[in-house]
Write a sequence for this structure.
């Protein structure tokens, strides 16, 4: 019988962690495929997660491909599917299609300094690359993370970030001052200009809200980064995830297949439909 590409694998949620509470909650889910071995994937790839009877959503895989026990997804509650995911408990079953997309070309970056710049839930796709680079530290140059959220309560991977500080420089920011906050106050692009990462032998990887990405790229250009030293992801709305429906395209590009990862050198040549 012909394989149906829309048929999901079955995943069991084995762990759920509250990252952010309040009006824009974020939870991290660890999922184990129970109908066979977990699939292999590249950093920056995504999977279509389905809640039976509700629908599907494209979500970045936030764990490293070097971790094979589970797939990790960090999910902001937005609407129908993500709300249903937030209602689930460990032991619940979901559908998983993927992996989809091109992923970050991390093998091309060996020997280079990697500068990670994230905002809000945009740390999720970066986290996969960052964890991989940490696990393979000898293969890369210096690593640096600049990450910001609206308030201190909106910071994801809070404990992991504190532990990361023992290994690499981590510069956090929040948008508006709060009592007790001792790190940077302001938007992520301002923190980039404040910390002035050097473009020498470096690659900058940035994910976050489109407005943040726009101004982070502007800041990086001011610091002397070339277009092909800057990588980002495009999160256009998606339906099929496999280049069939035309929902996600930018010009002739299907973001689900040709993206979601682009260098700024590639992205700036495409129509501004993202
Ligand atoms: C490549 C890719 C990777 C993604 N990775 C993550 C991730 O790691 N974590 C995460 O939380 N989310 C991620 N998203 C966004 C996620 O797919 C959407 O938030 C989700 O599909 C919304 O589904 P829903 O049924 O809950 O909301 P819906 O009921 O479909 O919509 C609720 C609201 O969300 C808006 N919305 C839906 N999809 C998007 C989108 N792609 N961009 C902007 N607004 C949208 C709708 O316009 C509507 O206002 C990613 C999206 C893409 C395309
Ligand atoms: S989501 Fe269908 S073509 Fe990309």
């Amino acid at each position: 019988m012909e394989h149906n590409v829309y048929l999901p694998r079955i995943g069991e949620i084995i762990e759920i962690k509250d990252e952010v509470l309040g009006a824009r909650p974020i939870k991290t889910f660890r999922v184990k495929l129970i109908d066979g071995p977990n699939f292999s994937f590249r950093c920056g790839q995504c999977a279509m997660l389905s809640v039976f009877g509700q629908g599907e959503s494209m979500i970045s895989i936030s764990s490293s491909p070097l971790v094979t026990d589970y797939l990790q997804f960090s999910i902001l509650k937005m609407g129908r599917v993500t709300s249903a995911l937030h209602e689930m408990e460990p032991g619940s079953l979901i559908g998983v299609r993927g992996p989809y997309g091109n992923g970050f070309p991390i093998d091309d970056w060996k020997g280079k300094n990697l500068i990670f710049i994230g905002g809000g839930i945009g740390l999720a796709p970066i986290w996969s690359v960052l964890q991989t680079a940490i696990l393979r530290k000898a293969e890369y140059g210096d690593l640096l993370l600049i990450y910001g959220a609206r308030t201190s309560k909106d910071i994801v991977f809070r404990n992991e970030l504190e532990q990361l500080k023992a290994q690499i420089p981590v510069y956090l920011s929040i948008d508006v001052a709060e009592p007790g906050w001792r790190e940077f106050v302001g938007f992520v692009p301002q923190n980039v200009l404040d910390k002035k990462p050097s473009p020498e032998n470096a690659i900058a990887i940035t994910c976050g809200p489109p407005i943040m990405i726009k101004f982070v790229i502007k800041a990086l250009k001011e610091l002397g980064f070339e277009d092909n030293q800057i990588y980002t992801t495009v999160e256009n709305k998606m339906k099929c995830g496999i280049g069939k429906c035309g929902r996600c395209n930018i010009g002739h590009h299907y973001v689900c297949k040709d993206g979601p990862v682009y260098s700024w050198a590639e992205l700036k040549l495409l129509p501004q439909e993202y």
The two ends are 38 Å apart (CA to CA). Residues 238-241, 243-248, 254, 256 surround FE2/S2 (inorganic) cluster (ligand 2) (CB under 6 Å). The helical segments are 80-87, 123-135, 158-164, 188-195, 210-222, 255-258, 264-267.
